[in-house]
Design goal:
The complex is a heterodimer of chains A (119) and B (231). By secondary structure, chain A is of the alpha+beta class. In chain A, helix 2 crosses helix 5. About 4% of the residues of chain A have low confidence. The longest helix of chain A has 25 residues. The termini of chain A are far apart. With 231 residues, chain B is mainly α. The chains are: A alpha+beta (119), B mainly alpha (231). At the A-B interface, helix 4, strand 4 and strand 5 of A face helix 2 and helix 4 of B.
């Protein structure tokens, strides 16, 4: 099942970045719930990127089991809402994964669009 | 600022959503709750765009977003994540066991049993005493196994970690029972590889006794919502 779907593009390119996207969003927003994450990604990418529900929750639960996320539950309206936030370990991991992603993007740029120079 | 009356999913519909998740094989309350909130928000979002839409129709559309396998992937991954957490709990208690006070206590008890067995003269009295201890212990284990079964079945809401704790606990108790009876041979014979047996016994004790007896505490630690519905 594809985690992140990008219209008219190869979504496999995005699949591996789902956890990093989640960690980054939680770092910026403090705490978020599942539905909010899907909507936020949609809004930030102007509908270009769409995190599927069937992939979001497995990713959240995995990150929680790894100790990167902590959970909080609050009663909202007539139901319970589960919020996720980064643990200290999660904050450290977010920094590492972002650095990795940035390096990946840099390397890909080098490969796809190398700046040749003759000296 | 104007207060707009936004359409909300009502309490009966929330119940219907719980029922819907159960019908789609989500058996545990922790996961049901998260999915119910997600579906409810999706439905409310659809109502904001078109308030005339009917509940069943909007629910169908939201469920479709989970893909052709429905909640299957979410359930599977949740189970894997929870199993990881359970292993983490076993490891935590295992490490705790090697802390000084507990380790000293275990060693002292082992030494005491060793001395008593050495002091008792070989024969019927020694055999009877050890057999008595094993049989009593086995009966107690038997009682514990049924107690765990009763707790698991009697719970109003099923929590995934709770199920793991009790199922593992029960399996361990039933596994230990024949071991105790087999151990009776030990009286007249000798114990092979005592260290391996000791480590195994420690894991069995942690899964079969320590963790189930602290289930409430562990559930409250794992599920913040557990305090709302302690059962």
């Amino acid at each position: 099942m594809l985690g992140v779907v990008k219209a008219m593009a190869n979504s496999k390119l995005y699949k591996g970045s789902l956890n990093t996207i989640i960690l980054k969003l939680l770092d910026e927003e403090g705490k978020m719930y599942g539905y909010e994450i899907t909507q936020k990604v949609k809004k930030l990418t102007k509908g270009e990127l769409n995190i599927t529900e069937g992939a979001l929750y497995p990713a959240l639960h995995k990150l929680e089991a790894e100790g990167l996320l902590d959970v909080e539950v609050a009663k909202v309206d007539n139901r319970l809402r589960k919020y996720y936030k980064l643990t200290e370990q999660g904050v450290r991991e977010k920094t590492n994964r972002l650095a990795e992603l940035e390096e990946f993007v840099r390397n890909m740029q080098q490969l796809v669009n190398p700046k040749w120079s003759i000296e | 600022m104007s207060i707009s009356k936004e359409p909300k999913v009502n309490t009966d519909q929330i119940e219907a959503l719980y029922h819907f998740t159960r019908k789609h094989y989500v058996e545990h309350y922790d996961l049901q709750t998260e999915l119910v909130d997600h579906l409810a928000q999706g439905i409310e979002q659809q109502w904001r765009e078109d308030p005339r839409l009917d509940f069943e129709e909007t629910l169908k559309r939201e469920f479709k977003k989970f893909g052709i396998f429905g909640f299957h992937e979410v359930i599977e991954q949740r189970r894997k994540a929870m199993a990881k957490r359970y292993r983490g709990i076993i490891w935590r208690y295992f490490v705790e066991w090697w802390s000084m006070p507990k380790l000293m206590g275990t060693l002292a008890l082992t030494a005491a049993v060793f001395v008593i067995l050495r002091l008792l003269p070989q024969g019927d009295i020694k055999f009877g005493a050890v057999a008595g201890v094993f049989v009593t212990f086995s009966l107690w284990m038997f009682y514990r196994a049924f107690e765990l079964k009763r707790k698991k079945e009697g719970a109003l809401r099923q929590w995934m970690l709770q199920e793991m704790i009790y199922e593992q606990g029960l399996a361990v108790q039933l596994f230990i029972l024949p071991m105790h009876l087999w151990n009776l041979q030990w009286v007249n014979g000798h114990m092979d590889d005592a260290r391996a047996q000791g480590i195994l016994a420690l894991f069995l004790k942690i899964c079969g006794y320590v963790i189930p007896s602290r289930a409430e505490e562990l559930l409250a630690e794992t599920y913040p919502e557990y305090v709302f519905f302690k059962n």
